[in-house]
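Subject: Protein entry, chain in single-letter code together with its fold tokens

Category: Structural biology, sequence-to-fold work with a learned token vocabulary.

Notation: Tokens come from a learned vocabulary of local backbone shapes, not from coordinates.

Start of record: The labelled sequence and token lines come straight after this line.
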Amino acid sequence: MEKVKRGERLIAMTRMLVDAPNQILPFQVFCDRFQTAKSTVSEDIAMIEKVVAGYHLGQLATVTGAAGGVRFRPLLAWKEAQELLLQVAQTLNAPDRILPGGYLYLSDLLASPVVTRKMGSIMARPCYDLNVDFVLTMETKGIPVALMTAEALGVPLVIARRSSKVYEGSAVNISYPDGTGGIETMSLARRAVANGQRALIVDDFMRHGGTAQGMIALMKEFDTQVVGLAFMLAQQREQPLTDLPEWPLMTFTGDGITEPIVVSPAKWIMEQGDRP
């Protein structure tokens, strides 16, 4: 095999790390791929780590131990996250965004891979050390941002449905209050989740919290621990929805009927200031 130039090797190694977010890649993987010594790989990793940190492109860390290696975590610099959410909030505050029933039109934003990937990186950031096994969302609008969060965390996406599908096998079905006095149903295939796993719940919009409470109840049926809740947009509340950690990207006031809806970036993000 022709010897790989260092510049080519650095580019290829960076791509391999970016394609496996939050996964530990042993040094031997790079040694075998590029037919080089572990000491050389270590020097390359140090250089990539310096550039990634210097330009705030994420976090590259060496993990020691028997199962050690190197791990890349996508991180959006807080300043960039704040600018993104300020821009999105301004877009959502346009009067023509209001839909009947006091909802906001979000579909164009949720259809943008660029926007949802950045949102997923922000949602994943406080959850990297929580040992999340999968991201759970409810069909259908929450799927894009939940998928990008799962990608950043390097875990599967699990989707709860309104009704069970025959091609998913046997399922657990529950009924839950929707927060407005009605009753909804939720279904999840038994094979989708294993007992004892840890889940992060992600959704696009939270007003009354019925769907989020339903997903929490569904996870209890699987003996699965919910480690937190993340929303693209959540109603500003005096008290949190549950005793679980909550990470909304943006919050809103008003009901869109008697009072205008006003969207702003979440306080916990704006409080980060200019930190990397």
Observations:
- Residues 123 and 257 are 29 Å apart (CA to CA).
- Residues 78-270 form a domain with the Rossmann fold fold (CATH 3.40.50.2020).
